[in-house]
Each structure stands twice: as C-alpha cells, then as structure tokens.
C-alpha cells in the first residue's frame, strides 16, 4: 500500500497522503512533512465525521471533498472501505492529481480488502493479550496521556 501512496505523493504539490478506514483510523500513510501522531488522528477522526455528516445530509454517496485553506488544501477521495486524504499546496494541479488518484484508487481498494480479510481471519486476542499485566497497562496509559498532552505544550 505504501508504494501506491508514494505514487500519489510524487505529484508536484502533494505533501502527505493518508489512508483512513471508515471510523477514521489511520491504516497507512506517507508523510513528507513532520506530522505528529495526534494531529493525524484528529485529521482522521474529523474527516470520518465530516463525510458521515455529508452522507446523511445528501443521502447519497459523497465524492471528492476539497477543503481549501489559506496555505493549502486537503483533498479527500472515497474508497470502498475508507478514505484517501491528500494534504496539498494550494496551487496543486488538480487534473494531474485526479489522474494519478484515479489509477491508484482500484489498487488501494484491493489492498484495503486484503487487509480486512486478514483481520477477519486472525484469531481474536485472548484476555491476557488485551489487558496485559498491570505494569504494562500503567506504562502504556502514561505514554498515551503524554502523547495526548504534548500538542498542548505540557
């Protein structure tokens, strides 16, 4: 999947490319800029909710979403089981981007289906794998809280 995303990032003006599942979780990404995990999680969560709201309001499938900002744009294209988000400069060539993405979408859809099939075939985690020991749980919780608070300057 990463090779497919690299072909999209190769378009002049595209800086980051992220594949999200239906819930907004990051499946894979290719980043050319330094991005924080927290920022990407927020982008994924927000994108999933925006698209769900648009689907409900329009009551049909949502196509390309182009969010324009002062210094750039975020282009979101639907996949069968998720979304492809591309962070671009404001002056990116949309025809070239669309041609590249139209070639990449079938490959990404196939990769997502393979990923979901592997997850369905994987055995469910046991109770000890889910919770782990108390020491591991405490360590991972403090690490997660630190990752969450870092963007806020603490």
Architecture overview:
- By secondary structure, the protein is of the alpha+beta class.
- The chain has a domain of 97 residues: Beta-Lactamase, CATH 3.30.450.
- Helix content is 51%, strand content 22%.
- The protein is built from 5 helices and 5 strands; from the N terminus they run αββαβββααα.
- It has a 5-stranded antiparallel β-sheet, sandwiched between helices.
- The protein is globular.
- The C terminus is likely disordered.
The largest sheet has its strands arranged as 2-1-5-4-3
* Estimated helix fraction: 40-55%
Mean residue pLDDT:
77
> CATH top level of one domain?
Alpha Beta
Shape: globular
CATH architecture of one domain: 2-Layer Sandwich
Q: From N to C, what is the helix and strand string?
A: HEEHEEEHHH
Radius of gyration, rounded? 18 Å
What percent strand? 15-25%
Structural class: alpha+beta
CATH superfamily of one domain: Dynein light chain 2a, cytoplasmic
Q: Mind describing the biggest β-sheet?
A: 5 strands, antiparallel
Q: Which topology of one domain does CATH recognise? A: Beta-Lactamase
DSSP strand count = 5
Show unreliable segments: 131-154
Intertermini distance: 35 Å
């Amino acid at each position: 999947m990463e090779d497919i995303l690299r072909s999209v990032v190769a378009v002049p003006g595209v800086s980051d490319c992220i594949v999200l599942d239906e819930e907004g979780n990051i499946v894979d990404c290719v980043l050319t800029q330094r991005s924080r995990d927290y920022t990407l999680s927020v982008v994924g969560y927000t994108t999933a909710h925006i698209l769900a709201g648009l689907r409900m309001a329009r009551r049909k499938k949502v196509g390309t979403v182009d969010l324009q900002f002062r210094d750039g744009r975020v282009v979101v294209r639907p996949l069968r089981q998720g979304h492809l988000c591309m962070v671009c400069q404001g002056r990116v060539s949309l025809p070239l981007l669309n041609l590249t993405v139209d070639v990449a979408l079938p490959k990404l859809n196939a990769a997502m289906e393979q990923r979901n099939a592997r997850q369905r075939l994987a055995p469910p985690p046991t109770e000890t794998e889910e919770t782990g020991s108390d020491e591991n749980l405490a360590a991972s919780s403090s690490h997660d809280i630190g990752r969450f608070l870092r963007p806020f300057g603490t």
